[in-house]
Amino acid sequence: MYVKDGEVTQIEGDPASPLNRGRLCPKGSASRQLVTSPLREYRVKYRRPYGTEWEDLALDTAMDMIADRVIATRRETWQDEIDTPDGRVRVNRTLGIGSLGGATLDNEENYLIKKLFTALGVVSVENQARL
Prior knowledge:
With about 130 residues, the protein is α+β, with helices and mostly antiparallel strands. The protein has helices at about 25-35, 60-75, 105-120, and strands at about 1-5, 5-10, 45, 55, 80-85, 85-100, 120-125.
């Protein structure tokens, strides 16, 4: 990645790499546009239920809304145990929350998301890049 005056100017692969011989995947090729596009949003956008317009929202407000919804959903859908033909089995899970990660996230981000959701008892955690 080449940066000049604090701005990304070019992204290239490593020609010495035995894996890709310097060629970039579609994600790598589009990464410059991802960070330099004039259409990139820098504010939190929120559309209220049944709303038709997006509105700006403070980051702290958005984070509080997300936390409140995760806590409420987890509380309402939590399963300590389930009945099976062999008796009750401890599962400690919620089926009320799921996560589908995007391919614009890197491996480290997806790893941390998986760890977070697993710690919350979420079973349905998937990533677009694996599909």
